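Because discrete structure vocabularies remain unfamiliar, it helps to consider an illustrative case, giving the amino acid sequence and backbone structure tokens:
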Amino acid sequence: MSDWWSIEVFDASELPARRWKDSYQDDLTEAALTNGAIEWAWHEHRYGVVFEVLFDSDERWEAFRALPAIRSALDGVPDPVNGLIVYRPGGERHGPARAGRGAGPAPGRRGPARAA
């Protein structure tokens, strides 16, 4: 069964997520394509960026997620403590976010978590 996965990166006070995207976009996209991604999409939002990718199995997703280039990109997010969510979108969405859909944070979230 094919499933979409999302890597959502939030802006940090010192570095916008868009700059992270500019640095890692080619690496993530190439790794997705060479590891069996069926589709992918990038989205920029007022609070950060989202990379959505569709694989035909969890095994392909796990192999992609374990690649050194992907681990490096995720380690390089602007705020590694509160600025990264990796998830499988829920609800009725079965594809990349379009204008008006998926424009907010992950289901059940209202933005990046803040340390108390």
